[in-house]
Every structure is written in structure tokens, then in C-alpha cells.
Amino acid sequence: MKPKSAKYLARAQAFAEAVDVAVEIRTTPPWEDRGAVEHYKWLKARAVPPYADPVCANLRGLTQLESIFLTEWNEGSGEDVELFWKRVAERGLPFQRRDVVREVLARGRINSETEYQTITDGIVIQQQMGRISATEADKLGRMLGQFEQRASKRHAR
Fold first, then answer.
1. Is-cis flag, bond preceding 50, omega within 30?
2. Which of 10, 67, 107, 121 lies at 20 to 30 Å from 142 by C-alpha?
3. Number of structural domains, the chain?
């Protein structure tokens, strides 16, 4: 495997630190979750040299790993989630909390598989929690269908 760029290495290090923050939180009562900790460590191992997965060990792959990892922390709520984002900010890590559902609604379009999965996984929960209205849920449903149509056209080529 060829040596990684300074930009990749810096981003991978920041990702590793964010994972370490999550591990600290998920190994502390009352938020202990060994399954989550193992998942975080698995993601980190795919990004951080020298053991980085060749498929993920580029900026595009790293962005995907970050997205997978941060989904829980972007969509979640509670003291643990707030603590995670506080510690990320205190360490000066280059990650900011995102509300993917609100971003997609504002844009009117789902742009990536990751956004598609986030919307698919969260649309019912978001509505039940009162974060989105029935009208917004319908709009997201239409956007999911449009994304699926575009994806099927891409795969048909």
C-alpha cells in the first residue's frame, strides 16, 4: 500500500480521536454498550494506518466511515450525545453535528446512499418523536422514491 497523504493522515487521526471519545462514553455507566464499542473499534481499524483497509484508506472511504460512525451521534439525543459533541468540540476535532433529515428537507433531494439510508432508517422514528410532520414525512417518502429511481437508472447502464 502506498504512503498516505498528510491530509488523509490528519483526517484519520481526527476520526480516531472521535472514536476514542465515543469509546470513553460507551464504557462509562450508565451508557455502557460493548457492542457499540466493538463496532467503533472496527471502524477505527479500517481508517488508521498501518492496518487501514485498502478500500477505506482514502479520503472518500474515510468520509464513508465517518458518516457511518457519526450517524448515531447526529441522530441521537440525550446526555451521552451532548457529552460526545461537547468533548469533540473541546478537542478541536473537525466534526460538527448534522441534522441530515433537515438538510435533505431543505435541499429537496437525497444526494447519496448514506443520506438515503439515514432517511430510510429514521423517517418513522423522526415522525414519532415529533421532529418532522406528516407532510415532511410524505415529502421524504417521495424523495426516497426519486432516489431509488435514479439509482436503478445508474445500475441499468
1. yes
2. 67
3. 2
User: Quick one: 47 and 37 in the same domain?
Assistant: yes
Task: Determine contact, residues 109/103, Cβ cutoff 8 Å.
Answer: no
Q: Is 53 helix (H, G, I), strand (E, B) or coil?
A: coil
Domain boundary residue, one of 68, 98, 128: 98
The residue from 98, 113, 146 where one domain ends is: 98
d(CA 11, CA 130): 35
- For CA atoms 22, 28, 31, 32, the dihedral sign is positive
Nearest alpha-carbon partner for 35 in 47, 44, 23: 23
| 126 close to 137: Cβ distance less than 8 angstroms | yes
Which is more confident, 132 or 56? 132
Looking at residue 20, its pLDDT comes to 98
Q: How far apart are CA 103 and CA 60, in angstroms?
A: 21
**Residue 10 shares a structural domain with residue 67:** yes
Q: For the chain, what's the residue count?
A: 157
More confident residue, 77 or 19: 19
